Model the fold of this input.
Amino acid sequence: MMSKDTKGPDQPMLWDDDEPPDSQPTDERSRRPTSRIARTSAAVPDRLPPTPTDHQELWDIDFVATYLGVPKQTIYGWRTTGYGPQGFRVGKHLRWRSSTVITWTLRLEREG
Done:
């Protein structure tokens, strides 16, 4: 004789959230549940740049490239020619003050 499956207090559901499994979004190719936040590209860093109002924050090259919408290699190329926002080294690491990058982009916008 089969007993009914009941969820006890110490027995979590498969997805362990408030929605039943049938309401989870799925990837049509694999039919597996997908995350609620879809990634658009593998090149997008896991973290986003700080908000433009946070002027004391130091940005690394990933943040600067993401903010400006250019590849990291472009930033490196700009540094060799003296173009782009002024960065500096902290040990062996490149950093940019967020206010410097934002000011540089605003100046470009004004110069048109």
About this structure: The domain at 58-111 is CATH 1.10.10 (Arc Repressor Mutant, subunit A). The two ends are 79 Å apart (CA to CA). Residues 98-111 form the longest helix (14 residues).
